[in-house]
Each structure stands twice: as structure tokens, then as C-alpha cells.
Specification:
353 residues; globular; mainly alpha
């Protein structure tokens, strides 16, 4: 019997080796054709993200500790931690990567927009328009899992709309030359506010959306952050004005991607996790409608840029699951910015929200 098995297994093993080699060659060919690892979709993406050693799982583990701990150690719900951080954890929760009960305090805070003004007390962030956008953006994700929270989202949207300027923008942190993970800046603040308003079916929201749309169509993005934000704000609009502005934004991103796959704040800057995460989030929706990016990227160039951006994020992650904080200027220390940077990187790896 053993002799028969040896005679059978040798040629079969050889065939299996040849088959495996062929599969490896074919996989390498596909990756080369797409400029990197093929995009992960559907159940495969969820399975990869949920593996204990994945970048996504490490980031979730980090945020699931640090977001609740901030409230325990400080007298406020800091907007960039419990806004961006909770939004990232809610996105991970939908994929089964974390139990929502681990950050229940932050979720309860989101459900009561009327209390958000208290965030300015005793050391809390005092930029209330920014805090409202960040908290409301997290509440928007919560509503996808808890539709009964739509009335809370509508109340939050009313607070956000009240801060909109006549030109259609939200002028957050205009004293800085460029936005940051916790400071956003006008372009990103307006893009996030628009995503919120799309989810709120009220007449006031529709009017605010129209003003924001006009602002985005007139935008002249020069930085990578603003280019990414403008692309997010334009969505899939394809009228002449939107197409022209999108082409300007895409050109900045095409010129700004560094050899390591990431993006910095400007086209000549070294890569930073936050700017890279935003660029990935801005480009990925165009894969569904590549004609929108056609003048600058074709479908394969888009896939390559996104895959390289994600590869940069994975390679630059710390062992504890965080990313070094993106600060303006670069190289400063800010633990709050680190939490926010990590949240943005996680959302980009999860596919956006």
C-alpha cells in the first residue's frame, strides 16, 4: 500500500508544484499589470481586514483603547478623538472588527447634539463649528446602523448649517496655511459637511448643499489636502464646471504621489499618513466611474495609485497600531493629532466612510 502511495504521490506532487508555480506567475502578472496588489473587495476585503495581524485590526485595537481613555483622562470629549476616532470605530464595527460597546460613551455623546457645546468647557476644543462637523460626521455613520437616530442627525445638521458662510464654505482654521487631521481647513470641512447634508432630507439641507456645490465648482486646489477634499466634495457630478475642477484636483494628486506611494501636503512634500489617507479616499470612488478621472488617470492608473497609497499606509504603521501624527508644520508632537491621524488612515484602509 505504501509503495503504491509513493508511486501515486510523486507525480501528483510534481503536478501540484507546477500548478502552484503557474498560479504564482499569473498572480505576479496581474499585480504588475495593475501596478501593485489587486484591489480587495467584498468578503475577501472583510476577511483580510479582520485577520489579527492586519493593519486594520491593529488600528482598531489602538483606537478602541485610546478613544474611550481620552474621556477618562480629560474633562472633555475632544472633537478630533471622539469625532474622527469614533467615526473610524463605527466604520470598523459595521465590518465586525470591534464591538460598539467598547466605545459606548462616545456613541452616547453623539446622540445628543445639543450637548456638544459643552465640549468647550475646561480644556475642550473651542472651535465649535469644527467640532459640530466632526461629531455630526460620526453620527452620520451611526445612523447607518441605527436609523432611529435620524432625528438626532437632523438636529446636528441644523447646527452645522448655521455655521455655513454665504459663499457655501465652512471656513475652519483659516489662520493656518493648510489643514490638519484635527484642524481640517475650509476645503475638508466643507467636504465633510456636504457628506453629512446628503444624508439629511430637509429643505434647509438641500439649500446648504447647493451653496456648497457652487463653492466646490469654483475651487482652485493647490495643496494635496485641498485637491483631495475638492474631489470628495464634487462626488460624481460631471457638469462642465465640476469636470474642470476635478481635473485640476486630479492633476495635483497625480503630480504629488511620491515614489514610496504616499502623498504629502504639497506636490513636492515628503509623504504623510493623513495626506495619503485623504488622497486614497478621494480617488477610490472614481474606480466605479473611471471616465470621471479619464483626462488624468485611466482605470489601471487609478488602481495603481490607490494600491500604492494603501501600501504606504501599511508600511508606515507603528507596531501599536497607530500612525505618527501629521502636524502642521511636520514633525511636532501631538497625541490628539496621532489619534485623529490613525482614524483617517484606518478609514482609508477600510474603504472609506
Amino acid at each position: 500500500h505504501n509503495a503504491r502511495m509513493r508511486r501515486f504521490s510523486r507525480p501528483r506532487a510534481g503536478a501540484l508544484i507546477l500548478l502552484a508555480a503557474a498560479l504564482l506567475i499569473w498572480t505576479a502578472f496581474l499585480q504588475a499589470a495593475s501596478g501593485g496588489a489587486p484591489a480587495r473587495v467584498g468578503a475577501q476585503a472583510d476577511a483580510a481586514a479582520s485577520s489579527p495581524g492586519s493593519a486594520e485590526s491593529r488600528a482598531v485595537a489602538y483606537l478602541a483603547v485610546e478613544v474611550p481613555r481620552w474621556r477618562e483622562a480629560h474633562p472633555c470629549y475632544s472633537c478630533h478623538n471622539n469625532g474622527d476616532g469614533t467615526r473610524a470605530l463605527l466604520a470598523a464595527s459595521r465590518l465586525g472588527l470591534v464591538e460598539a460597546g467598547r466605545f459606548a460613551g462616545s456613541i452616547d455623546w453623539l446622540r445628543t447634539p445639543e450637548q456638544w457645546v459643552l465640549n468647550a468647557d475646561d480644556g475642550g476644543v473651542k472651535d465649535l463649528p469644527l467640532a459640530r462637523i466632526q461629531f455630526a460626521s460620526a453620527l452620520r455613520v451611526l445612523v447607518e446602523a441605527e436609523p432611529d437616530q435620524l432625528p438626532a442627525l437632523q438636529r446636528a445638521a441644523a447646527l452645522v448649517i448655521a455655521d455655513q458662510q454665504a459663499d457655501g464654505s465652512w471656513p475652519i482654521n483659516t489662520s493656518a496655511t493648510i489643514g490638519s487631521p484635527a484642524g481640517y481647513g475650509p476645503a475638508l470641512a466643507t467636504a465633510m459637511a456636504k457628506q453629512l447634508l446628503v444624508a439629511v432630507p430637509t429643505p434647509d439641507a438641500r439649500q446648504a448643499l447647493a451653496r456648497a456645490d457652487a463653492w466646490f465648482r469654483a475651487a482652485e486646489p493647490a495643496s494635496v489636502l485641498d485637491a483631495s477634499a475638492v474631489l470628495l466634495g464634487l462626488g460624481t457630478a460631471n457638469d462642465a464646471a465640476a469636470a474642470a475642477t476635478r481635473t485640476r484636483g486630479l492633476t495635483v494628486l497625480r503630480q504629488g504621489q511620491a515614489p514610496d506611494g504616499g502623498w504629502g501636503p504639497y506636490t513636492t512634500s515628503p509623504s504623510e499618513p493623513f495626506d495619503t489617507a485623504l488622497a486614497v479616499l478621494a480617488l477610490e470612488p472614481l474606480l466605479a466611474q473611471p471616465a470621471l478621472a479619464g483626462p488624468v488617470y485611466d482605470r489601471e492608473a487609478l488602481r495603481t495609485a490607490i494600491a500604492q497609497g494603501r501600501a504606504y499606509l501599511r508600511s508606515s504603521q507603528y507596531a501599536d497600531g497607530s500612525w505618527t501624527e501629521t502636524t502642521r508644520p511636520s514633525g511636532q508632537e501631538s497625541y490628539a493629532q496621532r489619534i485623529s491621524t490613525t482614524a483617517w488612515a484606518l478609514v482609508a484602509l477600510l474603504g472609506g466612510d
